[in-house]
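Q: Hi! First time asking for a complex rather than a single chain. Here are the components, and I think there are two in total. Is that enough to go on?
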Amino acid sequence: MITPQVAVAMDWGGTWIRTAVINRQGDILWQAREPNPQNGTKEQYLAHAEQLLATAIEHAGGPVAGIGAAVAGPVEPTTGTFYQPPNLKVLDGVSFNALWEDKFSLPVWVGNDANLAAMGEFYFGAGKQSAEQGQPVKSLFYVTVSTGVGGGAVDNGRLFLGANGLTAEIGHTIVNPSGDALNCECGSRGCLETAASGTSIARIAKIRLAASEFPDSVLAGLEPDNVDSEAVFDAAQRHDPLAVSILDGVVSALAIGLTNVVHLFNPDMIVLGGGVTVGLVKLDLLTAIKNQILGRAMSELHKEFQLTSAALGDSVGLVGAAALVWQQLDKAQE
Amino acid sequence: MITPQVAVAMDWGGTWIRTAVINRQGDILWQAREPNPQNGTKEQYLAHAEQLLATAIEHAGGPVAGIGAAVAGPVEPTTGTFYQPPNLKVLDGVSFNALWEDKFSLPVWVGNDANLAAMGEFYFGAGKQSAEQGQPVKSLFYVTVSTGVGGGAVDNGRLFLGANGLTAEIGHTIVNPSGDALNCECGSRGCLETAASGTSIARIAKIRLAASEFPDSVLAGLEPDNVDSEAVFDAAQRHDPLAVSILDGVVSALAIGLTNVVHLFNPDMIVLGGGVTVGLVKLDLLTAIKNQILGRAMSELHKEFQLTSAALGDSVGLVGAAALVWQQLDKAQE
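A: Yes, that's all I need. Here is the structure of the assembled complex.
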């Protein structure tokens, strides 16, 4: 039997649910985006998602190879069971694979959104671009630096999933073990997320403004509500000393977290995504991060990695979900 | 063809070279140990190793399934090329696989000794014991805390190798990013190895004695040459306050490094080996390490891991090398 050449992909976040039809090359042939039902029950959420999947299947215009879904939260890889998703709490305990395989008579694979973003970048983003330039990637580590900080790891084309699929949580690795470390949402202290996320950049700015450091900073003249990560990046672009100092801290924290990743995962490509990364790229700070990692790397072979920003934008979850479908089908045929 | 039921294993360290005949169950049926040639050339080292392999093959008493070798240093996994081994410098650049496959007409697999120790514990040590008690292990992270600190990761039965086989180097993850961190042999500062290895325990003891902390400590009464990690463990067993304080630091450092491992690898088993671990176990400090990790873990599923000491002793490298042979042969037959 010839495998159909399109997959249906879903990216289910806390606010939006996106669906798409995607081919073997990672091209999005059709897509849609809708908000989750407001204050909906589990049944309403699921009915809505199934309706969107059905619509996507219709738009495939022929046989569909399978369904891939990226979901915002921890997910058990073999059953696709959602586990205490912080932004989709009503879906706790739902096992997507059995549910949708039954409903649509198609194979279903579900993964955490940051893990699948790593798959998307490996097969259809920065990893593909590198391969086209004659430098195929063996092991890719993806980090999203956004409201929070998450990650995903792909090793030789496969997701690295550990015991429960909860790998690559670089946002909760410790970059500041000292007594003055900031508390993290996760209950711990000194996590990378407290030093580099968009939320943390705003929080650090407010703490340092309250301490009256750099009273001449343009940030000191803003309404507290307007002191967000974008304001810090804007001020840094105009060489504001407080903003520059805050971003120096972000760079150091990311370099420490990524040095640990380099020594533990030995990747040949690190891809940074998310809104904070966009700001770092504008200020050419990825070079500073890479130089700090190189200064700490233990061997020449550990230094052989590319550090690059994400090639795929908002659609990275959808494309990664499709990449999971193709990789799983190819694996089954090996 | 029926696969022969014995493998020849080698564990090649900086001082000793060990060989063994090992069966499918991980039992050592025969073994030998010899020192490396003193100040030998590359050719002398290789001739010596080949002679020991030939002797082991003779002792197999029948057909041999393959040769597995654990070597002390970075090794490229597909060719078995040794890369700047710090303690076997004359062997830099040697590609064992082609060399020995040609010589012995047997399949050859070579791995880094800490990586293969992880394989040994997974298949024939702590992982096997857990499986026999009804709790099979999916993802195991091994740490040797000895003269240095190294590691290995086995995920679903396979070595996690990254781009160049240089993974799981937990000894060079950063646990102290502050300005007063100790310099590490690797050229960086604040690495776990500077806070938890046997060498570092002695170094820290000397630094703190020089600072005249705890002048009543029994360690202050020793000749400087006798202030080693064993002396610190002995003193801690007698509740010496300086020794206890030093080991508190070792526990904290290991807990930070392993918290990062828990969030990045999501293992269901962490195995600690090496001489320092023996000391920690005597003082019941593994429990303290585990409690500190649990206090920092971001989710309930991340807390679902066993922390245990190594089940295999000095033969872990040999047994791990045999485990690699069986796993690779089984993979080829899948």
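A: Residues 9 and 68 of chain A are 5 Å apart (CA to CA). Let me know if you'd like any chain examined more closely.
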